[in-house]
Amino acid sequence: AAAGLSYVGGYVIHTYRSYDNFLHDKYALLPAAIIICVAMVMFVIGLIGCCATFRESRVGLGLFLAIILVIFTAEVAAFVLGFVYREKVKTDVQSTMHSVFEEYNGKNPETNVVDYLQKQLHCCGVKNYTDWTTTQWFNSTGNNSVPLSCCREDMKNCTGSLDLPQEL
After folding, report:
1. Where would you find the membrane-spanning parts of this chain (predicted)?
2. CATH 1.10.1450 fits 89-167, yes or no
């Protein structure tokens, strides 16, 4: 379990590099760091449990049980906090994404990140393609279309036109 959590934490940190323009919050990598720390603690606790079982130590097994109960309590608390603050996280990410979409101009680094995100997640805009109608890029182009990264992969002649939303 510790190895699996270490992998997940490392994967999140590695993947963060692709989306760091959307997550300006300095605490965005905090969950990944916590996951890695938990993995290390789990390894030590597992080692204690194995040694206590191997030696058949009542004190060691009692300590292992106490640690497991503390971990269970922490997991319940983390679940409750995640449930309570899920809307705040959603609102923060959406506002950051809107600001990045607003900086989209077809040339800057934010453009590459937005295009990459839309292609990888097969989406268009923050909620849908109509989010583009309020951006400076949309108003400056004047061609009533969204970026080509919004086009469905199976549509070969897609122009991003809002007149053909089935292609987006």
Report:
1. 28-54, 61-85
2. yes
pLDDT in tens, 41-83: 889 888 888 888 888 888 888 988 898 898 889 888 988 888 8
Report d(CA 89, CA 103) in Å as an integer: 21
Q: Provide the 10 A C-beta neighbour count for residue 101.
A: 23
Confirm whether pTM is higher than 0.85.
no
Intervals of the chain under pLDDT 70: 17-28
Per-domain residue ranges of the chain: 89-167
* Unique residue bearing structure tokens 């890695």: 36
Where does the chain have alpha helices with state H? 2-19, 30-55, 58-84, 86-102, 109-121, 136-141
- 3-state SS of 48-79? HHHHHHHHCCHHHHHHHHHHHHHHHHHHHHHH
With contact defined as beta carbons under 8 Å apart, do 101 and 125 qualify? yes
